[in-house]
C-alpha cells in the first residue's frame, strides 16, 4: 500500500514573517545640552523659529500664528498645549521667546525624533512622501510635484537608499537651524523672484 506523507503540524497555515517594529526611542546622547541641562537652543535657532511663526512680520507671535503653523504638523493639538507654549500670554516678542528657550530646563526630550515623527505618522521608520508633500503645500510652498518630492528625498537621503530614515534625518538636521538643507534646497513659489528683487535693490543702493 502507498504510504502517506507525514503531515506537519499546522502546515496549511502560513504565518507572516515577524517584522520588528520601528523602535522610536529617544537618543538623548545626541541631544546637545545648555548650561541648565535642558535642550540647547541657539540664538540663531530662536530667531529662525520667531520668523517661522511671525508670518505677518508684526514683531509678535500670537496664539493664532502658533495654531496655523503647528497645525500643519500636529492636527489635534489641544488648546492647553498652545497656552503652555505661549507661556499663558496672548503675544510673544522675540526677546520673550528667547527668554523661554535659551535657558530652558527641558530634560529627557529628543527634539529631532519628535520632528521626525511628524513626517512618519505610521511609524515605519521612514519619512512618508505624501505626508511630506502635504506639509510643504500647507506651509505655503505651492503645489509640490513628484519631481519636487524627488529633490526633497534626494536632499535628505544621506545614506543613498532612496528613503529618509531617522538616522538620515539626524544627520541632515541641525534642529531648528535657519538653513536646514531640506528647506534650503526647496524654494516656495515666488521665493527666487523675491530674492532677485532684494539683490537688485541692494545693488542699486551700492
What does this structure look like?
By secondary structure, the protein is mainly α. It is built from ten helices and two strands, in the order αβααβααααααα. The chain has helices at residues 43-53, 63-70, 79-85, 94-102, 111-119, 129-141, 146-156, 166-172, 181-184, 191-205; strands at residues 61-62, 91-92. The longest helix has 15 residues, at 191-205. The protein is globular.
Short description:
By secondary structure, the protein is mainly alpha-helical.
Key terms:
206 residues; mainly alpha; two-stranded antiparallel ribbon; 10 helices; disordered C terminus
Task: Give the helices and strands, then pairings.
Elements: H1 43-53, E1 61-62, H2 63-70, H3 79-85, E2 91-92, H4 94-102, H5 111-119, H6 129-141, H7 146-156, H8 166-172, H9 181-184, H10 191-205
Antiparallel strand pairs: 1-2
Helix pairs in contact: 1-4
First and last CA, distance: 104 Å
**What structural class is derived from the secondary structure elements?**
mainly alpha
Instruction: Record the strand order, biggest sheet.
Output: 1-2
Q: In total, how many beta strands?
A: 2
Mean pLDDT comes to 79
Helix percentage range = 40-55%
Characterize the main sheet.
Answer: 2 strands, antiparallel
Number of helices in the DSSP assignment: 10
Percent of residues in β-strands = under 5%
Ranges with pLDDT <50 over ≥5 residues? 6-21, 175-199, 201-206
What does the radius of gyration come to?
A: 23 Å
Please tell me what the overall shape is: globular
Instruction: Return the string of H and E elements.
Output: HEHHEHHHHHHH
